[in-house]
Amino acid sequence: MSKAVTKIQAFFKSNPSPFTLKSIKEAHPELKPSEISMALCYLKKQRYVSRQPVASNTIKGRKQVWSYTYYSEKLPKENTDENRTD
């Protein structure tokens, strides 16, 4: 595991609410946005993180962003893909 994954896991464990990439970046300014994104992708693939689209609270930029929620136990496989249409 990389240092970014370890730091983000620790952040989620100490702050148990959903977070966006921007809020994680504010908590860990030493990490690059790409490092945070790759760590979140890794945790999502390992089924420890789920994500949902939420409205962005910025004036400029994207209308929606991803909100990430961390789970201490792996999620079942059917809950990991937010784009399923079954």
Walk me through the topology.
Layout: H1 3-14, E1 19-20, H2 21-27, H3 33-45, E2 49-55, E3 64-70
Antiparallel strand pairs: 1-3, 2-3
What does this structure look like?
The chain has one domain: Winged helix-like DNA-binding domain superfamily/Winged helix DNA-binding domain (Arc Repressor Mutant, subunit A). The chain contains 3 helices and 3 strands; from the N terminus they run H-E-H-H-E-E. Strands 1-3-2 form a 3-stranded antiparallel sheet. A hairpin with an 8-residue loop joins strand 2 and strand 3. The chain is globular. The mean pLDDT is 86.
Mean pLDDT: 86
CATH homologous superfamily classification? Winged helix-like DNA-binding domain superfamily/Winged helix DNA-binding domain
The 3D shape can be described as globular
What percent of the residues sit in helical stretches (DSSP H or I)?
Answer: 25-40%
Kindly state the number of beta strands: 3
Per CATH, the architecture is Orthogonal Bundle
Give the number of domains. 1
What is the element string, with H for helices and E for strands?
HEHHEE
Helix/strand class: alpha+beta
CATH class: Mainly Alpha
Uncertain spans = none
Lateral arrangement of strands in the main beta sheet: 1-3-2
- Between the first and last Cα atoms, what is the distance in angstroms? 33 Å
Beta-strand share of residues: 15-25%
Q: Number of DSSP helices?
A: 3
Biggest sheet layout: 3 strands, antiparallel
Rg (C-alpha, Å): 13 Å
Q: What is the CATH topology classification name?
A: Arc Repressor Mutant, subunit A
